[in-house]
Specification:
The protein is built from 6 helices and 15 strands. An 8-stranded mixed sheet has the order 4-3-5-6-7-8-9-10, sandwiched between helices. By secondary structure, the protein is α+β, with helices and mostly antiparallel strands. Bound molecules: 2,5-anhydro-1,6-di-O-phosphono-D-mannitol and magnesium ion. The site of magnesium ion has 4 residues, from strand 5.
Length: 285
Amino acid sequence: MRDAVSRIVDAVAETAPEVRAGLTGRREYETDENPSGEQMLAADLHADQLLEERLLAIDGVASYASEEREDVVESGQGDFHVACDPLDGSSNLKSNNVMGTIVAVYDEPIPAPGSALVASGYVLYGPITTFVLAREGTVTESVVEETDDGVERRVVDEDVTIPDDPVVYGFGGRVPDWHEDFEAFVREIEDELKLRYGGAMIGDVSQVIEYGGIFAYPSLTSAENGKLRLQFEGNPIAHIVECAGGRSSDGEQSLLEVEPDELHQRVPVHVGNTELIERLEAALA
Ligand code: AHM
Ligand code: MG
């Protein structure tokens, strides 16, 4: 039998076509807000319910946590704790732009530090559905397809590595809300790189991994910790980018070194080529 971590990864990939198929007709907002005070779409809740059901059914999964629910759901057995952003960038659904599902598998109860990650990955609902997985220091990219025999995952890149020469950048938050030191760094970067920003972290990070560059959702004057959440977004993305040869930072240190204190805590996120993240840290020091 496949090990528990592989079964978790399989379950996320196998659920992806269903999440994708469920997007049509789920573009309206729900009346409730998520624990971060943001409006949820019916599609967010649908993806969250599917993932909770599939992941908690796996022998070895002790708990499931998501951006869309207040508390961790426990199964009473198992060694692995799974945190998901069921639909990252869901505000892109109305305009029919890219979105993704992010998964983080920890071997410690959530909230856990990034050092407790045993695997992390994301599904990208782009023109094709792809699955990027970081495990044991290596990143692979697969294409997810529905066949007569079920959902198939075909590896298309066995060793995803960020190219040495960076090309793109994308930074979130309103420019008037950026801190001065961050803005000064951006003014340097925009002379060297090309702006690519789509409003879904997962799509923007995917471009950075493919072409080289830097993505950030920084600390803002209106929100010191930015927007993105450590357990569901910051940690797994940092893990993937670092396994692909890049670096992550909260402005001072790797995101994987940030000590968590709260399930839905936010953190400034900066990921990309090592050289660019080092320059960013120097600019913010
Ligand atoms: P979500 O997980 O609820 O979709 O929120 C996170 C998203 C990120 O994907 C993206 O980087 C950011 O929000 C964009 O925010 P904004 O629309 O404020 O620029
Ligand atoms: Mg998100």
